[in-house]
# Entry
Amino acid sequence: MHARALLRRKFRQLRVDGILVTDLINVKYLTGFTGSSGYAFITGKDAVFVTDFRYQEQAKHEVRGFRIRIERGERTGEIKALSDECGVKRLGFEDHHVAYGFYRKLLKKKIKLKPLTWIIEEMRVIKSATELDLIKKSVQRAERAFRKLQPFIKAGATERKLALKLEELLKDEGCKTLPFGVIVASGFLSALPHARPTGRVVRRGDFITFDWGGEYEGYYSDMTRTVVVKGKDTAKQKEIYSIVLEAQKRAIGSVRAGIKAKIVDAAARGHISEKGYGEEFGHGTGHGVGLAVHEKPYVSWRSKDVIKENMVFTIEPGIYLPGFGGVRIEDMVVAKKDGVEVLTHLPKKFRVI
# Structure
């Protein structure tokens, strides 16, 4: 069933007869529009996409299933006019996205408003066959780029140059945007889960953590690999790496439709804790990926999410030792009725280069 139809089926339960969608990620999900200004206005019988003059031609090519309208006046006035035209008595809006000032302006237009939280995000969490195909193509682009980076990974390279090269290779693969700035963290800096690339020169014996993602038609991927630069003694690195890899395998093996997300987290966290490094794994085990690189479900000890069939998310446990370095291994998976499909395929064996 189309997303618009699913949304309309919720109107009675939500006690609205129209919904204003302003979050641009959700606008893209519903309409196909990729520009930076526009909103969707959906009622029981009508679907209108509104943008400004700059995107008039783009909207004609991208938007499907919506009547296109070009703004001529102030936005809240346009929304009031649409509400009157469509007979909307109570208008739902995305309370997590609408700024307070904009909300106040809508109220002054005498529009009855109903705040809605994460309604479209809950729809986005279950991926269609088409979405899964786009995500897989995003993964393929990211993996091809990383394979091409291999000759450049060596002692003497800087984190910044490796990150810039990987970004260049991702764009060469066709990625129009990147889900986030490429992370390259070496040596003691790899103990920072979200380190930014610096001018630090990679040295022998260093861990190097690469965290990056690709894009295909607006859908993202996210993966992490950690390697070691050949040095005199890499026994400690191998020990830590082996623990993280086993934790990740256990978490992936626990995934199936119907399981609580926090149980998947516990599969990884439990193993790392048993090995004495529980305090060195402080972030969640994973997060959903799709039109946004961080979305539902959230796989952590705090999560209330339940894994459902065709949810796509990461599994990324890690151990971070200040002053020494850290390991994170991240793959993307899709939950199936009786198990899991791993979408990322780069090798994970402990690797010294």
